[in-house]
Each structure stands twice: as structure tokens, then as C-alpha cells.
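Render this sequence as a predicted structure.
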Amino acid sequence: MMGWRKVKNPIESETVTRQITKAEYQSMVDSASIVLVDFGAKWCPPCKQMEPVLAQLQIDMQGKFVLRKIDAGTQTDILDQLGVNELPTFILYKNSKEVWRKTGLITVEEFKSKIEKNY
């Protein structure tokens, strides 16, 4: 799907979703000192695999970071602006600055390591 969209092929949709602006995204990133942004989609099998990992991470590191989810299936403008080309993509921010970015499947331990390093 990401490749299809990247070459500007048409995408049929049942509804038109209002795109979040760069300012709205920045507001999400500014909401806490450590913010993890998850770019995923309902139709993405690896994204679904990451759900229990993220749930465990939130339990294990409660109060140390804020998780923000972006639906990459609908919020395509912000993906383009941030250069997100694969799903899932995770971006970690510390004090509103990007400090780490990774795509694909990630373990709870790797997330913890990156958050602890920046905490």
C-alpha cells in the first residue's frame, strides 16, 4: 500500500478523513518530555503484531513516556511530511526533538532501552 501511494496511484476510500496538520502533530509531540509516536494501520499485519508489545511497554514504563498513535492508513499527509515510508514506524521524541526512529517489529526490551536512555 505504501509503495502504491508513493507513486501517486489513486486510492479509493469510503470517507474523506481530515488530515492532521504539522502544527497539530507538533502539539502531540510537545505534550510530554518523552513521546513515542506509532505510525500504523488497521490493515497492516506487522502493526497488529506490535499491539501487545506496545501494551506491555505502557504497563512496564507507566509514567515515563506518552504513546501517540497515528493512523497511517488515513493520515497520509503527515507521513509524507515526516518521510515515513514503511509501516509500522516508531519515532521517539525527547523535549520535542526526534532522538530515534525505527521501522518494523521491535521488542519491548529495545523500546525500554531507548526510552530509558532518553529519560
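Summary. Residues 45-60 form the longest helix (16 residues). The first strand starts at residue 34 and ends at 40.
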